[in-house]
């Protein structure tokens, strides 16, 4: 496909010309990105509303403003992060200087998802540009309005730095057949395996931002009303189509009963008595996902919500009490369904978490230090958050990424710059005096003693002990 090959070729030519390496170029691209977000704010907000029914305030919070803050953070700290880092030189190599520096990889492919079609495409873009790369962007075809706006404005604001390729599976397949220096993918597990197989053909490194079932544990030591409101906010934001949303709640039965009541109150406080009439509540992205969510809800026990309208793709915030074997507990929900699952206590909750693939995030609502330590020490997850879901994404100094089945690699802030860079080591040893004469062949007893003394002095001290 020529419309795929040409953008990749242009991005490669721009990088090979050396224009992307100077700090001034990188900072200029970040400023251009921020200017695009400011000047075309209305276009992006309208597109997000058309694709996902996002309120303009939520679009600012989780998409447009999020990327602006990420780019501003990169711009503010980039010069310091790029400074070479001195490394001590052992006696055997002196006199010499050694250091590492972050160097750009080349051409980066960023494949974005549909649920946050602006944030999850442009935040990696900002990091890749800050690291001195050129970028090919593949927006999701399932968010067509946002894809079209990106294709309209990226070439104007980031010409020579970023290319946009629109389309579906054929275009993505054609892109993956090209050689890139890094592939950054956000999406589901099945597609991630396709990306990894394609990347292996060129030995291309990948970052995979996936998802999974992110649990929330609630115990009696927490404030149930506040915990419920935070869980409801994290679950039902973007109509539940958020990779780090709480996917299910674990608690003792005596906690689940009052928590369920507080969750119902929280939903009403957030979206009113009829969320369908609330401009703050989003819509399901397409008919296929709507049908999938309907099947999951109908195969379980609905205790609140469940109302839906296929024509408008409205699906009410819904609480479930699943039975063992219900399909809703077998896969990531990615929608406004929240199962409430009883456990006998802390140990069973941890067994439940550890019995599944490692989640992208784990949320613990507890004021008990021992409970907090138990989750920290006995579980593995992309992130661990106490008393709040999803908010860790807004801390630019924290790496965001999964582990195991929830992904590999991380980004945001300095972690983005490192993800899209190679930390190149450099050694500078003057030709005079040529101390290597002490170790050149032919070997003698004197040289053996010198080498023995210089190469492994620490090991010799250890043997003496």
Description:
- The structure is a single chain.
- The protein is an alpha/beta fold and 465 residues long.
- The chain is built from 16 helices and 18 strands.
- The strands form 4 sheets. The chain has a 7-stranded mixed sheet, sandwiched between helices. Strands 5-4-3-6-7-17 form a 6-stranded mixed sheet, sandwiched between helices.
- The chain starts with a helix and ends with a helix.
**End-to-end gap:** 67 Å
Radius of gyration: 26 Å
Mean pLDDT: 96
Please indicate the percent range of residues in DSSP E strands (runs of 2 or more). 15-25%
Number of distinct helices: 16
Name the helicity range: 40-55%
Provide the low-confidence segments as ranges: none
Task: Count all strands and give the number.
Answer: 18
Shape designation: globular
Across the major sheet, the strand order is 10-13-14-9-8-15-16
The quaternary structure here is single chain
């Amino acid at each position: 496909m020529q419309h795929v090959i040409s953008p990749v070729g242009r991005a490669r030519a721009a990088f090979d010309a050396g224009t992307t390496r100077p700090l001034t170029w990188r900072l200029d691209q970040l400023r251009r990105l921020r200017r695009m977000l400011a000047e075309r704010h209305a276009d992006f907000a309208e597109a997000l509303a058309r694709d996902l029914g996002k309120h303009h305030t939520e679009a600012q919070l989780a998409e447009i403003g999020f990327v602006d803050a990420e780019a501003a953070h990169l711009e503010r700290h980039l010069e310091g992060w790029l400074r070479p880092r001195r490394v001590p030189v052992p006696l055997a190599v002196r006199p010499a200087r050694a250091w590492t520096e972050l160097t750009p990889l080349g051409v980066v492919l960023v494949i974005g998802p549909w649920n946050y079609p602006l944030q999850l495409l442009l935040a990696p873009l900002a990091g890749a540009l800050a690291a001195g790369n050129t970028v090919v962007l593949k927006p999701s075809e399932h968010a067509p309005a946002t894809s079209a706006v990106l294709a309209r404005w990226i070439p104007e604001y980031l010409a020579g730095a970023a290319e946009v390729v629109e389309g579906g599976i054929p275009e993505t397949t054609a892109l993956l057949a090209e050689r890139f220096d890094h592939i950054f993918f956000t999406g589901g597990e099945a597609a991630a395996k396709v990306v990894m197989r394609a990347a292996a053909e060129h030995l291309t490194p990948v970052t995979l931002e996936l998802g999974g079932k992110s649990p929330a544990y609630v115990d009696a030591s927490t404030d149930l009303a506040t915990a419920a409101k935070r869980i409801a906010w994290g679950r039902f934001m973007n109509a539940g189509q958020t990779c780090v949303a709480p996917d299910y709640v674990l608690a003792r039965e005596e906690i689940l009963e009052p928590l369920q009541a507080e969750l119902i109150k929280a939903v009403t406080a957030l979206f009113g008595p009829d969320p369908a009439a609330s401009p703050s509540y989003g819509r399901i992205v397409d008919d296929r996902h709507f049908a999938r969510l309907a099947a999951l809800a109908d195969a379980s026990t609905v205790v609140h919500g469940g109302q839906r309208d296929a024509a408008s793709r409205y699906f009410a915030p819904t609480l479930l009490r699943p039975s063992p074997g219900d399909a809703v507990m077998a896969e990531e929900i990615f929608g406004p369904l929240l199962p409430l699952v009883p456990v006998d206590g802390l140990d069973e909750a941890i067994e439940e978490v550890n019995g599944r693939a490692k989640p992208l995030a784990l949320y613990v609502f507890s004021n008990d230090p021992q409970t907090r330590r138990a989750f920290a020490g006995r579980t593995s997850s992309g992130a661990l958050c106490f008393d709040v879901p999803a908010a860790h994404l807004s801390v630019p100094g924290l790496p965001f990424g999964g582990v195991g089945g929830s992904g590999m690699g991380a980004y945001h802030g300095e972690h983005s710059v490192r993800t899209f860079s190679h930390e190149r080591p450099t050694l500078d040893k003057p030709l005079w005096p040529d101390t290597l004469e002490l170790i050149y062949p032919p070997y003698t007893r004197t040289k053996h003693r010198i080498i023995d003394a210089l190469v492994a002095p620490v090991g010799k001290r250890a043997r003496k002990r």
